[in-house]
Structures are given as structure tokens and as C-alpha cells.
Amino acid sequence: MKRIILVGYMGAGKTTVGKALAKDLQLQFYDLDWYIESRLRKTIPQIFAEKGEEGFREVERRLLHEVAEFEDVVISCGGGTPCFFDNMDYMNRQGDVVYLKASVDVLVKHLKMGKTERPLLKGKSPEELENFIRQQLEKREPYYQKAVHTLDVSLMDNYEKIKLTVAKLREQLLQ
């Protein structure tokens, strides 16, 4: 029975790496945000708008507890998931938690490449985006660092770089 849980700031590559790792290890892949959206039949921005961040975080916690009971899975969590309630301690009890650590520069580049609408980043200039990420990362880092494993990720702008990252992660998990 295997359970690998990926944490890190938005844009670190949790979904990208998670999908590739799950395929590589022949495990099921779950993105917690997608799981929440499919269970509630609403988008994350809609849930935020209706329930506010606090209400969203409660839903997120409940569904994290649901998905983290599944076996033979790779789960990618939202960037804020580890920072609320006892989520990080819970995840560490449930499986191998990996912090995908990226520099602010890499995060900005990944977020610019990504197609996902991110409610927290809406309408920010490039400078505001960089400052916002830097400030949030400072607050969230202590939670992320509770992960048993940390993998420094660099810019993953092509398939080869993604494969290399997955290979490094796989090696780290098998040690």
C-alpha cells in the first residue's frame, strides 16, 4: 500500500509531477482541488466566493481526510492545504509527504506558463505577483518544511525536465 502526498506553493508543479509520478509507479493520481470540484460540482473560485476562505478550508480538510484514506495513490494538494488545521501532521501520518520546493522566480515562470485561473493572483502586475508569492511563501514555508521529503524543483518547461524531476523524486522515495 503506497500513499504519496505532494505539497508546495501553487505553481511548484505538484499536479504535473504528481500525474507523471503516478503513471511511473502505476498508482492512481488525485489532485485535491479537482477532487473537491468534482464532489461539490463547483469550481474552487465559486466555492471561495460562496463560502469565503474559511468555509473553503473546512471543505478542503474534510475531503483531504477522504482522499488520504485511498490506497496506492499520489495526491497533489492545494498550496494552502498544509497551512490549516492539523492538515500537515495528518498527511505525514497518512503517507510519504514531499515538499516540492521552488524559488520565487521558478514559481512566477510556472504560473505564467499555466492555464489555471488562480483566485489569489487575479489582477496582479508582475511586480505585485512576485511580492505576493514571496510574502506568502515566507508564511507557508514552516508548514511545507514539516514534510518528510523535500525536493528542490527547477523550471519544468519541457517533458524532459519533468521526467528528470520525477526520476529524482522516485529515487528519493525509494531510499
Descriptive notes:
It is a single chain. The chain has 175 residues and is an alpha/beta fold. 56% of the residues lie in helices and 13% in strands. Strands 2-3-1-4-5 form a five-stranded parallel beta sheet, sandwiched between helices. The protein is globular. The two termini are 17 Å apart.
List keywords for this structure.
175 residues; five-stranded parallel sheet; single chain; 56% helix; alpha/beta; 7 helices
Topology:
Elements: E1 3-7, H1 14-25, E2 28-31, H2 32-40, H3 44-67, E3 73-76, H4 87-94, E4 96-101, H5 104-113, H6 126-144, E5 149-152, H7 159-174
Parallel strand pairs: 1-3, 1-4, 2-3, 4-5
Helix pairs in contact: 1-7, 2-3, 5-6
Q: Brief description of this entry?
A:
56% of the residues lie in helices and 13% in strands. The protein is an alpha/beta fold.
